[in-house]
Amino acid sequence: xxxxxxxxxVWATVQYExxxxxxxxxxxxxxxxxxxxxxxxxxxxxxxxxxxxxADALRFPFLYLTGHLPVRFTETERRTLRTFLDRxxxxxxxxxxxxxDGVFHKTATEEIRRSAGxxxxxxxxxxxxxxxxxxxxxxxxxxxxxNGWGDNLVHEHLQAVMIHGRVGVLYSxxxxxxxxxxxxxxxxxxxxxxxxxxxxxxxxxLTR
Amino acid sequence: MRLHxxxxxxxxGLLAIAGWVALALRPPGxxxxxxxxxxxxxxxxxxxxxVERVHVRVDTVPDHRSRDWLRALRRAGSAVSWSxxxxxxxxxxxxxxxxxxxxxxxxxxxxxxEGPVLSDALGAIDxxxxxxxxxxxxxxxxxxxxxxxxxxxxxxxxVASAPLPRRVYVSGAASWESKFVIAALEEAGWQVDAxxxxxxxxxxxxxxxxxxxxxxxxxxIVLDTLARVAGEVDRFVRQGGGLVIxxxxxxxxxxxxxxxxxxxxxxxxxxxxxxxTLWRGLSRVPFDxxxxxxxxxxxxxxGKAIVVARRYYAGRVxxxxxxxxxxxxxxxxxxxxAAHRQWWSRLVGSVAMRSPLAAEHATxxxxxxxxxxxLGPAVTTSLRPARIPRPMLANxxxxxxxxxxxxxxxxxxxxxAR
Amino acid sequence: MTAMRRLHAAQATLIxxxxxxxxxxxxxxxxxxxxxxxxxGALTAAAILWWWRGVxxxxxxxxxxxxxxxxxxxxxxxxVDAPDTPFRPQLExxxxxxxxxxxxxxxxxxxxxxPLLVFLASQFVVAPLLSSIAERGRDASVTRPGARxxxxxxxxxxSATITPPAYSRxxxxxxxxxxxxxxxxxxxxxxxxxxxxxxTMPSTPTIYRLGDGNGQRLVSLEPRPDSxxxxxxxxxxxxxxxxxxxxxLRLSAVARDDIGIxxxxxxxxxxxGTGESFTFRTTSIGRxxxxxxxxxxxxxxxxxxxxxxxxxxxVHLRAVARDANPGPGAEVGSSETRTIRIPRAxxxxxxxxxxxxxxxxxxxxxxxxxxxxxxxxxxxxxxxxSREALTAEAQSIGREQTRLRKRVGQIIFTRLTGEDHADEExxxxxxxxxxxxxxxxxxASDATDLTDDHAHEExxxxxxxxxxxxxxxxxxxxxxxxxxxxVAEPRQALPHMRAALDAIQRAxxxxxxxxxxxxxxxxxxxxRIRLTGKREGVEPGARSxxxxxxxxxxxxxxxxxxxxxxxxxxxxSRGEHGGEAARAAVxxxxxxxxxxxxxxxxxxxxxxxxxxxxxxxxxxTASLIAxxxxxxxTPVAAPQSxxxxxx
Lengths: 208, 418, 647
Description:
The complex is a heterotrimer. Chain A has five helices and seven strands. By secondary structure, chain A is α/β, with parallel strands linked by helices. Chain A has one domain: Domain of unknown function DUF4159 (Rossmann fold). In chain A, a hairpin with a 2-residue loop joins strand 6 (159-163) and strand 7. The longest helix of chain A is centred in the middle third of the chain and has 13 residues, at 103-115. Chain A is globular, with a radius of gyration of 16 Å. In chain A, 59% of the residues are buried. The model of chain A is unreliable at 1-5 (pLDDT under 50). Chain B is rod-shaped and about 120 Å long. In chain B, helix 2 (36-49) runs parallel beside helix 3. In chain B, the strands form six sheets. Chain B has an eight-stranded mixed sheet with strand order 13-12-11-14-15-22-21-20, sandwiched between helices. A four-stranded antiparallel sheet of chain B has the order 8-5-4-23. Chain B has a four-stranded antiparallel sheet with strand order 7-6-9-10, with no helix packed on it. By secondary structure, chain B is α/β, with parallel strands linked by helices. Chain B has ten helices and 23 strands. By secondary structure, chain C is an alpha+beta fold. Chain C has four domains: 3-139, no CATH class; 230-324, Immunoglobulin-like, CATH 2.60.40; 360-511, no CATH class; 551-632, no CATH class. Chain C has helices spanning 3-30, 37-51, 58-68, 75-81, 88-97, 101-139, 360-381, 387-417, 423-428, 436-447, 452-456, 463-486, 490-511, 526-529, 551-572, 575-597, 601-616, 621-632, and strands at 158-163, 173-176, 180-184, 188-193, 196-200, 206-211, 216-224, 230-235, 240-241, 248-274, 277-303, 314-323, 333-334, 338-341, 636-637. In chain C, the strands form three sheets. In chain C, strands 8, 9, 10, 11, 12, 13 and 14 form a seven-stranded mixed sheet that branches. A four-stranded antiparallel sheet of chain C has the order 2-1-4-5, with no helix packed on it. Residues 137-154, 349-366, 429-433, 448-467 and 509-518 of chain C have low confidence and may be disordered. Chains in contact: A-B, A-C, B-C. At the B-C interface, strand 7, strand 8, helix 4, strand 12 and strand 13 of B face helix 1, helix 6, helix 15, helix 18 and strand 15 of C. Strand 8 of chain B pairs antiparallel with strand 15 of chain C.
């Protein structure tokens, strides 16, 4: 049973049946820390984990989903996701792999298409990139897109399912899950905090 | 034999002519009694012939035109009276919804018995339950005038066409509640200006003007206590604007606009469904004391007011204790999105500033009362209306005279006489 | 009276009677219509007089009298033809004695009496009846259109031949004058009549307009989408854990489709790896052809050995079926996915999931990654930096690397010896000719019973042993990186730093210290960190409004109301004008119906019923009221409140 957090934003990570949904457990606390550092939003200091097959998922209008393994939703998970999006929820999906067109990407995009609709490239001038911080060049590049880890390929765009003119599902192949998977205290090592884009996602979800 | 027939026809024709002349020359009469069906044709005749006294027997209240005509006859000197076997008492009033989706609230009063039937220009809508003497229904779509019919007696009222609502202004901290309140209002057709606080010196705004103004906005919704808007809000409401204060915003700077005090927040018991109408979410802030002289509780839960309303100078203020209605929308039943949207739209519509023109539009009807007001109380009379109306009688006599004389002439000519 | 005078009198009688009768009939007919009554009446009078024109001819009157009064014995005719006849006195006497009056009376009665009766009836019966009907009609809420006129009497005759897509194997249908055509998306539709037109069933409901100059007709095209097959994986029935990847696994599934299935098979994805490093293999087995059957049961036997599974591997298995739809957007149907896991040695299964925090090594890995990022950025900026600045920055990173290396060393020492914070004291006492790694190991071995070899074994014994080997590699790689950074050679340091990270990842994967469960508990002190971040670049953009969700509904209601008003206009008109208005109203209702099909099918059905009633010439009042309610919703009883806002 997920404890209800009253009147606060809660970073909620989706637990789904098929894959390693828990591959980035530090993202929640790290982004929560960022929200508290940069905004005056009421934020719960404790992130939540919520099963996608449960109606509890509807208590958290912002959901984060990641993993490395194939994503195969059950019918209950698809139904919950459809209801979640129809009612105004925001789902952020991030491929935790350093590859292109891999198994997570193929299966997750298939499930998103079946549950929510087709993914389209989000223009780099979209509101999302100016929801709080300004990202004039679109989605910030992660270190994992650069040389060393994989393919030297930088994903130019994020993808989205638009619902009633708004981003309902935001899909990333840029591996923000790895980029943001560190203890919040380690922010002091960075000249520019690389979690700022995550703040944009939350502010966008809360205000659009 | 033929001669007798000719003579008889001649006499009949002459008598018919005499009768026709006598009818024409006869003064309008000391009293003329007509039934409702003959009223329309009698009115012009009475006007031209200057009747002394007329009595109308009606089964239903005559229409506006006929009533005004009878009143004019009375003022011109004719004694006008009326009587009726039984006219169903009926009252009707329409209040146009100020929401963008339109519609109307219809208030109806009728005598006990079968419920009156409500209809509009497109047809019958429903039967209204008036078990307690009065009832009200909310119509989401109304075309033309509204008619309430009890038996054969109708009452008609138009629905004032409300001008397009102006914008509403939403102010508060960026949160799920503010997000989904704005979403509900925009989906319902309202135009929204917004200012959502994200951090010191940083707001997410929408709309050209961030200043509350009755020239632009018809209502304001305040979701969090923000001292900077308190002065603006007070001025706005005094000038006629509407105000909805949500949750904790009822404390602090805006408390003076309400005639109520905010109590401690209540959390819904474990297991409460977010769509539960007792909670509309999972928490609420009850209003502990509501000054009955100034405020009206609109929703009560467990004996405590959760939605209250009051007039404040020229404006209207509603305090809402539900502070997490977004949970109702997200996690409620199948119709939660539509129900949440409708609830918020109606709430804002109930305080939104109204056009003064709408108030001048006649939107009510009480036929029997109107009849009494026009022509006074009913009068019993022993007179009966003529079996054959006078014009018809005149036509008949004329026809008889013509036929009799013609037949007489033809018989004479057939006989060979001139 | 002479015979001629008697003849003149009789003719005058007949003429006057005819004239009077025609006038009476004209007056009676003139009641029928306030606009055309006068013309009708004149026409009637003229017709009657034409019918009775014989009375204006003396000759005809004479012959008529001779026929009716046999006693005349043609005396009158003789006198008319030969007025100077010598037999005049006898003929006159015969005419004088003949009784003409009865015949004349009867004729007068017919010429005058019947029209008089008709006139009286029109005054006292028909006129009041018509006015009461008109009165009722004004009160009627919904008027009937000119019934037959609404039935598309624009004289447009056509048929439609619907040919479904070949893959569906459905029969070709022919419909006569259809108002709506429902068929599979992609069906070919051929309209034929005085014209020929071809259409293809679109994917969304549409109105198709047919016209040939004589008339016009709207036809609604209502697509039936081809559904994706539904597939149920019957065995295995649930997720499984297999201790060893061996044996034969029976797979069975059932697929169903509305049109027909082409093939079904089982799709397998094998995931290998842990942490951040995975590999995947995809294969399919058990392909079965269905040849268009609507149901397909298919099975296979999976030789698990053939997958060459290792501990830690996960098999994702699902059944898939494809129907015959060749379209590019056609989806395959799939079942739920079953997961088969091969546990690692020492790994508890999901039956007893225990949450555990990530090891300290996890934090080390992430810090190492950030050091790499910092170093990469430094490398990227090297050209623009002075030697001093480069040295300062590189050494700063080096110090962090040292700090991290010492932490890793502490972990190794603690795991080997069970003691905390003793490594520095221990290593400080060692000969400084040893590398830190060697020093660390020596210190650890001095403090424990573990030999160096034992500590380097991997994969046997407890996981602690295996971890240490990887951590030692990381430790040594960090040491090498530190040395490079210390001499301002960040580019040369990077390979060592990456090797350290790789080693840490392997160490973490080897441990597999947490399964599904609660995330690591990091406690945030909200008050301490609130608004401490640098907010340069914060410029929240403006929000743009959402679209109204009710605009489409309001537009539909308005169009429906306009169509009903058009019907009322049609009912008040006669003839072609009324028929045209009625057809236009039906067309408007069809457009509203098609608009509703996709999201309000129930309301669309009520409008269909109204359209059918109108086309058939039936009273559509009830069906239109039902449609109105479906569009506008049922009235809701409102609580009676003192609030003037209409709450």
